[in-house]
């Protein structure tokens, strides 16, 4: 529709989530494999009835597909699985046997690597044998094993670039560092693009074609199919890198409790900063369908996410079954309150709680990641659901914007609130800290401002 902001399709959302789960911060020391071939870490999204019910990544001992079997078992029947790499034969035979509906994968180097990274030549041969076994399992499977890589909608990349630069986290850091002549966001974004392209895109096009042919995708090696495939992959990598740069690792900024809670920061901070940042970027990805992310601690789990497991997610939307023109779409810029959308929108927090795939256990440390401060309509729901911690942007705290009020968030008791701040121990020496960020060190003068 003319005038509407672009939205991320669900297929691309699930694909991006699988790539991002592959990048989940390592919880455990990865063991050196004793087998001849290289096993790539893999991310996996489990979808049922077009809703995410599981987010997983490989651990030191188990592949992502094996973890999904342990976690979901027969509940995988009729699910769609989105892998960040084509699964190996060991995983594929089990998940096919579970009765999944469709298995989609990112078309680069598979889980059993076909790139010549190992010094032992036998590794490449074993990888090729596994690829043949995977192709045979695919041919004889009722489940659809396929690529599902949609082009981004028109202007989507431009839209995510503009909104990422303006997001709460970037603006709060920039405000604190006012007067420092550097664009840390652009530098961070360029670093992420370079990093993710090296992980998810095979730089050598001829090698990429060889891998696709070994995986049984000969039809994609001819142009224009191959060039279109590469462009779609690059666009999604650019999208992911841009969103990741909007929640940057910068100096001693991170997610900390405000006020008096800051003194007991280490006791109350139940998540390492890199994991909190990872989960907030998941919420930022959902925001391009307008959303947030909900997860919870669990004890002794096999997943590469360690003590965390996924409870549910949601994004802003009109009630299910609504047609586009059923409700108003006007925002607070319209003077006539009757034609504003706020009274009809289901908020992201409400959707996450309604369609959660697991119960929130009162004895465990559940947490919710929201790109913006929860409004007065959602704050009582979050507390009533038994959620223990909120990670959020806080620029709207204490404000009233048109029909939306954010007064209750600050007064919320019994729920710890983590927002983007500088580490408490540095707040008292902020001027010296800022100067130190942009002064070259004697050991490495090139690192100033990085």
From TrEMBL:
Reaction catalysis annotation: cytidine + H2O + H(+) = uridine + NH4(+); 2'-deoxycytidine + H2O + H(+) = 2'-deoxyuridine + NH4(+)
Give the molecular function GO annotations: dCMP deaminase activity; zinc ion binding
For this protein, the Enzyme Commission number is: 3.5.4.5
Q: Which InterPro entries match?
A: APOBEC/CMP_deaminase_Zn-bd, CMP_dCMP_dom, Cytidine_deaminase-like, dCMP_deaminase-rel
Question: Domain of life here?
Answer: Eukaryota
- What keywords sit in the KW lines? Hydrolase, Metal-binding, Repeat, Signal, Zinc
* Keyword Signal carried by entry: yes
One GO cellular-component annotation of the UniProt record comes to:
cytoplasm
Could you tell me which residue ranges the CMP/dCMP-type deaminase domain spans? 19-122, 274-406
Q: Which family does it belong to?
A: Belongs to the cytidine and deoxycytidylate deaminase family.
| Name this polypeptide is given | Cytidine and dCMP deaminase domain-containing protein 1
Annotated source species: Chelydra serpentina (Snapping turtle)
